[in-house]
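Consider the tokenized backbone below.
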């Protein structure tokens, strides 16, 4: 019985570049998910953010 070898092909998401359509208004860093942008905007480095006054 001959052995069959399976060749795996990379998934399209692994090779397709992600478009970053959401941009931080302060530093212009791009994000692909809104939740990541919201988390980034709350960081201490941005003036006016919730944590910057501490």
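A designed sequence for it:
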């Amino acid at each position: 019985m001959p052995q069959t070898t399976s060749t795996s092909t990379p998934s399209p998401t692994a090779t397709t570049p992600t478009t970053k359509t959401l941009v931080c208004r302060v530093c212009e860093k791009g994000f692909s998910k809104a939740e990541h942008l919201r988390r980034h905007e709350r960081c201490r480095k941005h003036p006016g953010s919730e944590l910057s006054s501490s």
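DSSP finds two helices and two strands in the chain.
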